[in-house]
Write a structure and sequence with these properties.
This protein is mainly alpha-helical and 289 residues long. It has one domain. It has 13 helices and no strands. The chain is globular.
């Protein structure tokens, strides 16, 4: 039976809870300050989405649920789905960059902006859809290799790294979906294919867990909470991944499709083209004067 030090787990839980509370307070401060600037106001529903995303992160790692992932693969899968599939899009919908920057003291915000400017080339690579897709797929596959999952369960340090990689990969993956890339190399309809192909690694892994004829993760011991057998636990985890990922990606793809077909979007695109044409003619008009 894998065993983690309960004292270490409790301290990590407390640190995470305090950190998430700090992030929430900074966001609230920035959100309130932005209310005085009409063009920069962030709707309440976006703030609510951000807080809900933080709550799901806490449920996955900071709540009592986090201790049960040592007992059941199904709970481990719930954590994985919360950190990679549900919390990241909610956080991005909250448009966190501006409120968090405005909510920080000026000197810290300036330091972050300076660091961002220095790391711009790296940021361009990290936010490319191909990189985001492969990063998420790699993290998914890596941490579900039996040896890697066993390492994460038996080492507190690797357990933290595992959860952090789930969240970071999820944030990278969902950014192009919630905030489509501006580059003309990545038309927005590409995101539908991006979501479709992202289901494939999940489907393969879920299929192995659901239809496999042996217990893949022997690290989970003989003690079975809630009376679940090892195979029933494995099949439950696979079915949960299959259902949740398919549903969430289908909803996201539907929203992207409706956004592409929206009359308002078409009017916006027409206005943007007209504005671009006017700006292109402006220098010539000035020369004729």
């Amino acid at each position: 039976m894998p065993h983690l030090n309960h004292g270490a787990f409790g301290s990590c839980e407390a640190v995470l809870s305090l950190f998430l509370l700090f992030i929430k307070l900074v966001y609230v401060r920035g959100w309130i300050r932005l209310r005085s600037i009409p063009s920069k106001r962030i709707p309440f529903w976006r703030a609510f989405s951000f807080f809900l995303g933080l709550l799901l992160i806490w449920v996955a790692v900071g709540s009592p649920l986090g201790a049960l992932d040592r007992e059941l693969l199904t709970v481990h899968m719930v954590q994985h789905l919360l950190l990679m599939t549900l919390a990241p899009p909610l956080i991005w919908l909250g448009q966190p960059a501006m409120p968090l920057l405005v909510g920080l003291p000026r000197r810290f915000a300036d330091s972050i902006l300076d660091l961002q400017a220095r790391l711009n080339p790296l940021g361009d690579v990290l936010t490319r859809p191909f990189f985001s897709w492969f990063a998420a797929a790699a993290v998914l596959v890596l941490w579900h290799i039996p040896a890697a999952l066993t390492l994460g369960l038996r080492s507190e340090a690797w357990h933290v790294i595992e959860h952090a990689s789930f969240l970071v990969a999820g944030l990278l993956f969902w950014r192009p979906v919630v905030h489509p890339p501006e580059s003309t190399r990545w038309p927005e309809f590409f995101i539908i294919l991006y979501l479709f192909f992202a289901t494939l690694p999940c489907d393969i892994l879920a299929g192995l867990l659901v239809f496999g004829d042996r217990d893949v993760y022997s690290v989970y011991g003989a003690s079975r909470p809630f009376g679940l057998s090892a195979m029933a636990d494995q099949q439950s985890a696979g079915a949960l991944m299959w259902t949740c990922v398919t549903l969430v990606y289908l909803v996201a793809g539907g929203i992207v499709t409706m956004r592409l077909l929206s009359p308002q979007r078409r009017r916006k695109d027409e206005w943007t083209l007209a504005e671009s044409a006017a700006l292109q003619k402006l220098p010539r008009a000035l020369e004729l004067r």
